[in-house]
Design brief:
The protein is of the alpha+beta class and 137 residues long. It has helices spanning 7-14, 30-38, 43-54, 61-73; strands at 89-101, 108-118, 124-127.
Amino acid sequence: MPDDLDDRGLEKLLYRPVAAREPSFAEPDYARVHQELKKGVTLTLLWEEYREAVGERGYQYPAFGTRYRNWAAKLKRAMRQIHRAGEKLFADYAGPTVPIIDAATGEIHPASIFVAVLGASSYTFACTPRARPRPTG
């Protein structure tokens, strides 16, 4: 070994950086798999279609299932609620006020947006009621 070779120089000679490799497996379209599962298609059938499309570059079934479950675990959860028709109406004022310009005078008035939604149909109603006097005291 040369006398001027220090630890860093020796490390560079022994441990060269590894070149990045291209992935050898084709990733499935997990969003499509998720949507198809909702329709009642089995994971096995989706895996078979995936393997047919990508050939030998595809994952085996256990890895396919595991990778899909890991992907699905990261999705946001939603609590589905069932509302019978005409049973519930959700109403509130939406966000901050919006400016309304009077066409005759050019005067700007702040207006609140009132929104009401029927629970079962999601039929939406929105309007900007005339300004209400604010309670004093």
